[in-house]
Every structure is written in structure tokens, then in C-alpha cells.
Design brief:
Blueprint: E1 2-3, H1 9-20, E2 27-29, E3 38-44, E4 47-53, H2 58-76, E5 84-88, E6 93-97, H3 104-110, H4 113-132, H5 134-139, H6 151-169, H7 176-195, E7 199-201, E8 210-213, E9 216-219, E10 226-228, H8 232-239, H9 248-264, H10 272-300, H11 310-324, H12 328-338
Parallel strand pairs: 1-2
Antiparallel strand pairs: 2-3, 3-4, 4-6, 5-6, 7-10, 8-9
Helix pairs in contact: 4-9, 6-7, 6-10, 7-10, 8-10, 9-10, 10-11, 11-12
Amino acid sequence: MISSLPNNSTTERLIKFLEERKLSNKIIQLTPDASIREYFRITWEGQSAIACVYPLDEQGATQFNACLDVTQVFLSAGLPVAKIFFYDEEKKIIIHEDFGDTLLREVFLKSTQAERQRLMDESIGLIARIQAATSRAFQMNSIASRLKFDKAKLLWELQFFKTHYFESFLKKPLSANEDEKLLSEFCEICEELEKRARYLTHRDFHAANLMYHEGKIKIIDHQDARIGAASYDLVSLLLDRITEKPSAEFLREKRRLFLTQRESIGLEKIDEEEFANEFELQTIQRCLKAIGTFSYQSVFRNKKAYTQFIKPMFSAVLESCETLNRFPNLQKIIRKQIA
């Protein structure tokens, strides 16, 4: 039985896939986030499962292969990602474990402060565990070990921000002079972060990409994992999709906790001051990248809810620039945006 499904090629592909296997199914479409994939809840071998259906194009094939690859790495490292029950390479469909519907972000909103802190600290521990799987990713020749946050990738993301925030969202492109000065500062940021890219990162690790299932935190949307700076996922967790900028004291406490968590599982010691400097640089790059994504999603996919995060994340970027006492052109531009 099909439950309120739109008539499109994706759902038809899934229905045909199930019919070929003589599986009578109630198919429930799930609401996607900022993804090119479509998700459906089905029954598989007597249990609830998720069918992830990818586009039949080059981007879809890339993400399909990456999901299979990175899931294998994460599972072999004991990380809490969904087990894959079956996949169809031709139809680009993956059937995997169902972690329910509860995002960690939703749990945060309903929890006491003490419970939020406990869950946040547990999430930070997962970042350390992902980094502990770095050597495993290289040993397995994972796709993630062959991708890196190098200058080219980091700069592409910042250019994406410029295009879609100023041009697509505001419809007010920067002047040629502003653009040139900003590009110079962006290059500085990217060159420094590339030198620090040594660890496996999830790449989009935040409370809307973590599930809370049967009392445990589960990781989803990990197919874009790549090698990056130690601070990358921590910045994402603490500052992505914020509606209010966290205090400097809170961020300092969580940085220290993360460094302690790393050492407790045998990873090398990172100097606290050096890490704080890296964290500020990564905040600038990661938050601007996210603002670009939110701008794009708002304009081209009509997902206006993302716009609420733009100003608070600009505030986080500005504070990092001021803490480092660097990037005056970026500071000037941001002040205009949050005035």
C-alpha cells in the first residue's frame, strides 16, 4: 500500500524495486532536509527500515557510492551509524536501519539544561571517535581519505557564500573592490586551514544530523566525510543553525572538553591555545559556508526557515575575526549585514 506519495520517477523507482522482490509495502515518504536524496519508511524482512533513493545522475551516483563506503568505515570503527540491509546499484537505492524520527535538535529543545549538556558532551565525544577512525579510513582506502578540505575546496565554499548570499539572497553583489579585498582574506583563511587538515571529519556534524533513538545518539548524513581540521566538526556542532550566539565561556569549555576526550581515547595532545586559534579560523569559514547554503536553500528551494540562522552566524564570524584581530575587510562587510 502506498501512503500519500507524489507521482514522480523517484517513488516509481522505489515501487518497482519493491514489486520486483514481491514485497507488499506501506511506503511513507519522509521529509528531506537540504538533501538531493529522498527517504521513505518501509518494512524490510519484518522490521521497519529506511529506503534512501538517489538521483540517477552523476551527483547521485557519487553520493550513493560514498554512503556505502563511509558507512563501512564508520561501522568498522564502532560508530553509531545505520546498518545497511541491502542496496541496488542500478536503481541507486539503499535500504538501511531505521533510527526513528527524533532529531537530537528536537530533544535539545525539550530537555532540561543538565540533560542538554549531557547530550552535547556525548556528541562531542563522538567527534573524537570519528577522528580516531582517521587511520582506518586510510587503511581501507576510503573515499573519505581521498577527499580533503584543501584550499580549493574551502575557497569554493566561500565563493559559494559570496554568490548566494550577496547575489541570490540579497540581490546586492559586492563591488569589484570589496570582492577583491575579501578574496584576499578568504585565501589567507583557506591556506591556513588546509595546513591543519589531518583528521577524518563528518563534514556536517550538527544536532539536525544526529538522531536520538532508544536513548542513544545516532549519526546520519555522513556520506560527505573527508579529511579536515580537528576543529571542523566541533565548530559545526556548536555553531551551525544557532538562533543565538553561544558565549565565549561556553565555547572555551567545550573546546577543552573535546581536547580531553581526544586524549582519553589515545589521540595525540593538541595545544589548547593553538586549537583555540584554529577554532576561530574554522568558525569563520564554516559559518560563512553555512550562510551560503541557507541563502541558496531559501531562494532556490523556498526553505525560508533557514534565514533565521543567518544573522546569529554572522555574529559568530564577526566575533572570531575580532578575537583573532584579523580580516578587517570581512569585519566591515559583516557589520553592515548585522547592523
